[in-house]
Amino acid sequence: MLDIQKIRTDFPVLSQKVNGKPLVYFDNGATSQKPQVVIDAISTYYQEINANIHRGVHTLSQLATDAYEVSRAKVKNHINAQFLHEVLFTSGTTFGINLVANGFASILKPGDEVLVSALEHHSNIVPWQMLCEKTGATLKVIPMNENGELIMEEYDRLLSPKTKIVAVNHISNALGTINPVKYMIDKAHEVGAAILIDGAQAVPHLKPDVQELDCDFYVFSGHKMCGPTGIGILYGKEAWLNKLPPYLGGGEMIKEVTFEKTTYADLPHKFEAGTPNIAGGIVLGTAIDYMNEIGFDNIQKQELELLNYATKRLLEIDGLQIFGTSEAKTSVISFNIDGIHPYDIGTIIDKLGIAVRTGHHCAQPIMNFFGIPGTIRASFSFYNTKEEIDLMVDAVKKAQMMLS
Ligand code: 7TS
């Protein structure tokens, strides 16, 4: 079993008081907190080897380049990509999805179809809508049921030779549903469609194996898995990355430039124009090392216990309804209380030191499905405790009394 109290000392922010109360941080779905090793690695980079990468012959530039490429290799091993050049650094999930959607503009024709799911974050909806507007392709939506699960019979029915790409999240940010992505990937391939998996909410909880999944693209952000903001990964199969055009033009993504014609660099540089977030790239490797030291089996065990305990405790509250009741679920609980706006609960419990997210969670179609303006979302990480859940339950009860 993990020694949670010891792990908590790795995270300086967790020992803070907020509004005079000990911080209870349950907004891990938005971004995770950072362990001291990650915070230190950012300083060390700037103190010791700060230089631009892939361009200088001087020692610092080489050290920075080496550290950046070592980190790429860590990511490759972590997600089990076949080739190093299939791992692209991006600024985050949103950027990765936009890069792929933009690339498909050169492939799609009017009459083609793009499939997204009813469970998507806006960043896995809007880029595909923009793509469809540009190309005349049609956006289709895989529906969900009342438990917040995608309906696989409907997915099977929607897939056809017209489907060119499917975009679905591995885990829903608003409800916590774990989607049957392996099934969905295999089915997409049966009709010749590509498939992108939005792993933003999965990577804090599990270690994706992109070769076993056989997905064409897998995107995620570093900041939800103990890493810094402004860094993320787009994994793409070599054949697809060779087929897609570059997203940004500029320095470092070229082989040769003349005013008549430019030829592009090989992967991964073709998609990495400009000076990247060098510190972020290096420190993402530190964050991945940290999480692997804790161990994803341990993380899952701890988070499942928190999920079960919080579900049981919250359901003690009269008039409380949980949205997202799939059997396959990660440590996210979205809930509302009869007759009370989620924002009001969030504001009161913040005064008691409890950080949750309230609102539509950038997933308005999910809120529309349930006919609600939003929810209160508590999202737990391995460093959270049952005692913190008790504090939240007490705070929610207090807010309910004040508001009804
Ligand atoms: N996809 C999913 C499933 C997400 O949960 C998020 C962020 C994104 C994409 C976008 O990631 P970004 O790093 O590019 O911004 N989700 C949330 C959330 O649930 N609360 O705040 C951000």
TrEMBL record:
Keyword Transferase: yes
Name listed for the protein in its UniProt record: Cysteine desulfurase
Boundaries of every Aminotransferase class V domain copy: 24-391
Keywords, sorted A to Z: Pyridoxal phosphate, Transferase
Phosphoprotein recorded as keyword: no
Molecular function (Gene Ontology), one example: pyridoxal phosphate binding
This enzyme's EC code(s): 2.8.1.7
A Pfam family: Aminotran_5
Highest taxon in the source lineage: Bacteria
Family label: Belongs to the class-V pyridoxal-phosphate-dependent aminotransferase family. Csd subfamily.
Species for this entry: Flavobacterium laiguense
Cofactor: pyridoxal 5'-phosphate
Name of the top EC class for this enzyme: transferase
Record function comment: Catalyzes the removal of elemental sulfur and selenium atoms from L-cysteine, L-cystine, L-selenocysteine, and L-selenocystine to produce L-alanine.
GO biological process: cysteine metabolic process
Catalyzed chemical reaction(s): (sulfur carrier)-H + L-cysteine = (sulfur carrier)-SH + L-alanine
InterPro entries per UniProt: Aminotrans_V_dom, Aminotrans_V_PyrdxlP_BS, Cys_dSase_SufS, PyrdxlP-dep_Trfase, PyrdxlP-dep_Trfase_major, PyrdxlP-dep_Trfase_small
